[in-house]
Amino acid sequence: MNANPILLQKKYSCVIECFAGEQDISLDAALDFFYHSEVYQLLRDGVSDMHCMSDAYLAKELELEYEAKY
Asked: What stretches in the chain show pLDDT beneath 50?
């Protein structure tokens, strides 16, 4: 199932903001990391209805990916 593109953009912004706050990094750094992450690819491609997950859950998934890379 694919999400509405406008709602998906809002979802991205909420996840990025939550991730930036939890990692204490700038929004620019969080945005850059997000758009190069596996989480973004899964959301964009509609895999496993990831867009239905909460912002906090997706931010946590980003955190795990971030910690694995850095």
From this structure: none
